[in-house]
Amino acid sequence: MQLITGGTGFVGRCLTARLVAQGEAVRVLARRPAEVSSANVVTGDVTDLPSLLSAVEGCQAVIHLVGIIREGRGQTYRSVHVQGTANVIEACRQAGVPRLLHMSALGARDRAASRYHRSKWEAEQLVRASGLAATIFRPSVMFGQGGEFVPTIKRLVEKPPVIPIIGKGTALLQPIWVEDVVSCFAGALRKDDTAGRAYELGGPETYGFEQLVDLIAEAEGIEKPKLHLPVWMVRPAVAVLGRLSARFPLTSDQLTMLLEDNCCDITEMGQTFGMQPTSIRDHLREV
Predict the structure, then answer these.
(1) What's the 3-state SS for the chain?
(2) Residue 245 pLDDT
(3) Neighbours of 245 (CB within 10 A)
(4) Distance (Å, rounded) from C-alpha 229 to C-alpha 178?
(5) Structural domains of the chain, with CATH
(6) What distance in Å separates the CA atoms of residue 287 and residue 284, rounded to the nearest whole number?
(7) Is 260 within 8 Å of 113 (Cβ atoms)?
(8) pLDDT in tens, 82-92
(9) Interior CA angle at 105 toward 56 and 166, to 5°?
(10) Contact 63/137 with Cβ under 8 angstroms?
(11) Coil, helix or strand for 115?
(12) pLDDT exceeds 80 at position 237
């Protein structure tokens, strides 16, 4: 039996479906159990240790996917990423669960410019010090059915009269298909030698942000002029609007990450899990 935290999220839904299809026994931790189907669902929250202790009982592994990309509604990066991970580790220890698969993020590092990446790094350090047979995954931006990455860029391309590009638009991204991420998690469950390792996950190609915008605009058959907006002008507006409205598509932390390269060497990923990742070009019509 494997417990999946974050089973109602983008990656969690795909991974749950994959493991169930493979005949694995899966239990999903969910704050809103009605959102989960075709799995054994338990009510709980990673920020609530007692609910975790009940959820991990009888499990051989925990797959910890919970994460937030923006703060709000009482959730902070520290409460979810750091304290939530600490609770998962403690629950594993108390229940005698030996195996932990942990989803971090590419770019997580000490003294990162974004609070998101710093919190992911802190969570990684807890996992490394846990004494559990743990594997860490650090994916770049993910795309696929139910994801928000490509639809967000599509809205950027479709709605305004011109396509806004913040700064130079040259920061590199390495989009990875969610099903390829799922393949790595599912593979790690069968590979004991992945314990104690961290794997960076990315797609087969890197793109500057403006290149991705051009790719998606072409796929949608949209031709519009582009307008490059200076970072110094955008940052104060994002700082205000990102706090005032949860519907505003960008926060200050996300802007910081958007201006950084987010790419990696995928050689180890391919060799360990025996896979060649799928290009975003093959799935633009689907997402």
Answers:
(1) CEEEECCCCHHHHHHHHHHHHCCCCEEEEECCHHHCCCCEEEECCCCCHHHHHHHCCCCCEEEECCCCCCCECCECHHHHHHHHHHHHHHHHHHHCCCEEEEECCCCCCCCCCCHHHHHHHHHHHHHHCCCCEEEEEEECCEECCCCCHHHHHHHHHHCCCCEEEECCCCCEECCEEHHHHHHHHHHHHHCHHHCCEEEEECCCCCEEHHHHHHHHHHHHCCCCCEEEECHHHHHHHHHHHHHHCCCCCCCHHHHHHHCCCECCCCHHHHHHHCCCCCCHHHCCCCC
(2) 73
(3) 9
(4) 31
(5) 2-142+176-202+264-277 (3.40.50.720)
(6) 6
(7) yes
(8) 999 999 999 99
(9) 145
(10) no
(11) helix
(12) yes
In single-letter form, the type of residue at position 18 comes to R
pLDDT digits (tens, 9 = 90+) for 184-208: 999 999 999 999 999 999 999 999 9
Q: Quote the pLDDT of residue 35.
A: 66
Residue 94 identity (one-letter amino acid): Q
Which residue spans within 10-166 are E strands per DSSP?
26-30, 40-43, 61-64, 99-103, 133-139, 142-143, 163-166
pTM over 0.90: yes
Round the average pLDDT of the chain to a whole number and report it: 93
Determine the pLDDT at residue 283: 86
160: its two tokens:
């305004």
Q: Residue length, the chain?
A: 287
Angle at 101 between CA 119 and CA 9, to 5 degrees: 70
SS3 assignment for 175-208: CEEHHHHHHHHHHHHHCHHHCCEEEEECCCCCEE
